[in-house]
Amino acid sequence: MTRVSCDCDVLVVGGGNAALCAAIAARRAGAAVLLLEAAPKSLRGGNARHSRNMRVMHDAPTPWVRGCYPADDYRADLQRVAGAAATSADGGLARRFIDASADILDWLAGNGVRFHRGTDDVLPYSRKTAFFLGGGKALVNALYATAEALGVVVRYDSAVRALHLRDGPPAVTVGDAGIAIRAGALVVASGGFQADPGWLRRQWGGAAGAVTVRGTPHATGVPLKALLEEGADPVGAADRCHVVAVDGRAPPFDGGIVTRLDGLPHGIVVDRDGRRFADEGAVVGPSRYTAWGELVAHCPGAVAFSVFDSAIAGRFRPSIFPAIQADSVGGLASALGIGPPALESTVAAFNAAVAGGGATAGIHPPKTRLAAPVTVPPFGAYPVRAGVTSTCLGVRVDGLARVLRPDGTAIDGVHAAGIIMAPNILGTGYLAGSAMTIGAVFGRIAGREAAAHALR
Ligand SMILES: Cc1cc2nc3c(=O)[nH]c(=O)nc-3n(C[C@H](O)[C@H](O)[C@H](O)COP(=O)(O)OP(=O)(O)OC[C@H]3O[C@@H](n4cnc5c(N)ncnc54)[C@H](O)[C@@H]3O)c2cc1C
Predict the structure, then answer these.
(1) What angle do CA 455, 164, 16 make, to 5 degrees?
(2) Domain CATH for 20
């Protein structure tokens, strides 16, 4: 490796929410900061670009969130999804995170981010989350503008290929030319590795081609793997990821939130052989997207079809892609590539089983809620696939966002923030709105601590 000297104190790897918060915090603490973003400028901002809200504790209404969401409620929600991660020895980290979420909106607002007012009625009411005015893209643009105005040097198209942490101050190798940059301290905020095609193939085998990545194609996990090779303690699970059900026609990357499919609990859902495989009414709340993502991921070919008739179609938000339609169930089956007799017999059996009270009787699997016969033409369907949000493997950190070895010692001058360390808080679970908060809270801590380390 040819090292070139660098006049930065803090080097930030990544260009999403966590990286930007780290860069701003480090710069405000007096450090010279260089931020390396793998994406081109037009696609900067990682998955944060697609996000819309963040979950914060508050004991009283604020300009941005109504009611209150006390720390104990937040902790209970976290424990429900994260289990051991939120209650184990690292529970202290979760507590610290929740407490630090209390003023993170003020801090972000002070750095240019704008939020919907809590009294706006344009978005679903939530006492738990604040919504970004203009969405995640506006948040990302605001943070870049602030970072650059403060003097953070931003380099796009700058994928970090390797980390060098064992010999002196941290250093990274950047780009195809293999330029090496050394810094006083490092913040790694490069997200997960869901966009690594090798990982997709290992997890999904032949069905990998059916899986889409909802966000950035740049989250290939090179810095995460490098951290692990350099001795960081892994946390979370390499074979787990967060998925939701998306329209099967979504692009392979960056489809974003609009590709999510809403209506699965309303009609019936069949696999590529035309068979129902789950109780469509089992989950009807916000977790239905995840529940269906998991179910579809395990279908043959990782594909399924949401099937409904014209009476049911009016009961849910349509996909951004047009429904595939036909005047008969057999015609719909042909359009979907399913053998017509198979789908006709599934629909007939389902219709015959619809009993009173919105449930079925006498079929397996049952439909326990929202059961209505599929009889009114035209019949419609959406192809469904699993859309990956992020992976669940990260590096262990302490309360100062320092990356830890398995023996609990910190790797000198190396910090991590965002999804790359989120399993410390979430385990392999997912709590809506918490990922952006983890990025902002630990980005801020990591930037401040990295600056302190570098300037010491
Ligand atoms: C469609 C969608 C909607 C979402 N909605 C929400 C929401 O409403 N609320 C919420 O809390 N969470 C939401 N999330 C999750 C949230 O966006 C992410 O958890 C969060 O953005 C992660 O932030 P991060 O900075 O850790 O990583 P990312 O946003 O993934 O950013 C990683 C950054 O690192 C860069 N990078 C990667 N590898 C390298 C490398 N080798 N060298 C240099 N740079 C590199 C990438 O280009 C990118 O800029 C959503 C995710 C998606 C996909």
Answers:
(1) 70
(2) 3.50.50.60
Ligand 1 within 6 A of 15 CB? yes
* pLDDT band at 177; cut points 50, 70, 90: confident
Same domain, 344 and 275: yes
**Closest to 46 measured CA to CA, from 81, 18, 24, 75:** 18
The CA dihedral of 87, 89, 95, 100, to the nearest 10 degrees, is: -140
Contact 18 CB / ligand 1 (< 6 Å)? yes
* CA–CA gap between residue 127 and residue 188 (Å, rounded): 32
Local confidence band at 88 (pLDDT 50, 70, 90 cut-offs): low
- Contact 14 CB / ligand 1 (< 6 Å): yes
Residue 241 confidence class, pLDDT cut points 50, 70, 90: very high
What's the gap in Å between 393 CA and the centre of ligand 1? 14
Ligand 1 centroid from CA 276, angstroms: 34
Is 52 a pocket residue for ligand 1 (Cβ < 6 Å)? Answer: yes
Handedness of CA 120, 126, 130, 133 (dihedral sign): negative
Q: Which atom of ligand 1 is nearest to the CA of 437?
A: 11
Q: Is 53 in the pocket of ligand 1 (CB under 6 A)?
A: yes
Amino acid at 437: T
CATH code (residue 353): 3.90.700.10
Residue with the smallest CA separation from ligand 1 atom 11 is 433
Q: Is residue 384 part of a domain?
A: no
Domain assignment present for residue 305? The answer is: yes
Of ligand 1's listed atoms, the one at least distance from the Cα of 436 is 11
Residue span of the structural domain in which 288 resides: 262-318+328-376
Give the chain's length. 456
